[in-house]
Amino acid sequence: MVVVKKPNELTHARHDPAHCLAPGLFRSLKRGERKKQKLDITYSYGEGESARFVGFEPLGADDMRILQGLVALAGPEGLILTPEPQSDMARQLRLFLEPKFDAEEKDGLIVRERMTKLLAEIGLTNTGDNIKNLKASLLRMSNVTILATKGTRQASFHLLSYDFDSSDGRLFVALNPRIAEAVLGRRSYARIELAEVRRLQTDPARLIHQRLSAWIDPSKSRQVELDTLCEYVWHDPTDNPNTMKTRRQSVRKGLAELAVVGWIVDEYARGKFEISRPAVQR
Question: Fewest CB atoms less than 10 Å from the CB: which of 40, 103, 150, 251?
Fold first, then answer.
């Protein structure tokens, strides 16, 4: 599902659009905000379809980045997690994923990889702090429950589940059925370019990049306003003019980062942009 461009370097992730477009699922967080806030957002789309994400802590750009790497690795490396897995590890991952209702008969995907490989794919080094942050992120995301509704039908599951193999130190992660279907081509997907992900430096740039990657197809362009882009980064609205000024400045810097990695950003009127996405590099 994902073509390897260089040794140890994947080109892209086939991500589920709902995980990319849900407003506030991933956001820019200040130090200490995770302890003060919860996650409870609903994304409605299509006709009678919605996905509700509920967790003990909000998810940040760091969590989003790790999930992007896992989704990318699931392409060439993922193992199908069937409703009746055979191995003990797979059964445990399925149990912790807690698929319910319509999800009980859906496949998930297992990624089995070393943490150092995952960090490298998203442009992070193998340091003690990064390993610690990775483990904390996996715990946060494993505590997020997703309730997907389509008409009168419902499916429920955790965003992911994970475990470690004590014999060789490898990480096992089970991705939920929605992500699995996107990776396997069973539903539409958002293409996230990892070469771009690795080069982005700030949370606003990363958050805007994923949102736009799910909204704008390669070689296409769309128009968007500056304040809308601010909403992509900060889920909480503000009436404070100084705060809004700072947010707009941060988003403008984020757009400059996108321009560096090949996107075309044209401010055709004050605070209004036409953004063009690069073509896929073969």
Answer: 40
